[in-house]
Amino acid sequence: EAQVTQNPRYLITVTGKKLTVTCSQNMNHEYMSWYRQDPGLGLRQIYYSMNVEVTDKGDVPEGYKVSRKEKRNFPLILESPSPNQTSLYFCASSLTFLDSSYEQYFGPGTRLTVT
Amino acid sequence: RKEVEQDPGPFNVPEGATVAFNCTYSNSASQSFFWYRQDCRKEPKLLMSVYSSGNEDGRFTAQLNRASQYISLLIRDSKLSDSATYLCVVNLLSGGYNKLIFGAGTRLAVHP
Q1: A99 to chain B: which residues are within 8 Å by CB?
Q2: pLDDT digits (tens, 9 = 90+) for A4-29
Q3: Any idea what DSSP says for residue A64?
Q4: Which residue of B has its CA nearest to A4?
Q5: Distance CA A101, CA B64 (A)
Q6: A42 with B4: Cβ contact below 8 A
């Protein structure tokens, strides 16, 4: 089944404790992206990757890191989480970043709470 | 001003009703347009693309007015299963790649 998976789905952590949210897709998509969703703000892009070893900042990259060592995986790293990073996070992928007609497929989401 | 603006709702309608959602976008360079559906605490899923000539998919009709920078979604004969949040999404070519800009969503609740 074609899908985007994320782990963990739910996480409660404390300020400053490093964490990684994994994202994996099995559709051989070039383009992957991380978003956060907060009430009243819609989805905002954190980082994106156009292909292996090619990543760039989105609109809200502060406090986050990413890597793209393999095509299928795009982990999101919070080196020192803070309470303002409490949010619902979605990973997404699409076939290519060059054609706007390609649908973005989203993972099931990770609900993160930082206390 | 937000790049994509939607009425947050909620729109509470009875089954069988017709309901319309509107969306405006600020960047005239926007290239393509979509409606995504998001169920409570779930991931967004593509509902339909929006074409300049308007397009229909079953009970759903999408319209685009580039001059007014306005997009609409019409749902006819509402079903209970249509209850969800509808996200207006605009694609912008930025820095050589296609970037999706999401509205905050309009919530629809269909009741018996």
Answers
A1: 98
A2: 999 999 999 999 999 999 999 999 99
A3: -
A4: B43
A5: 16
A6: yes
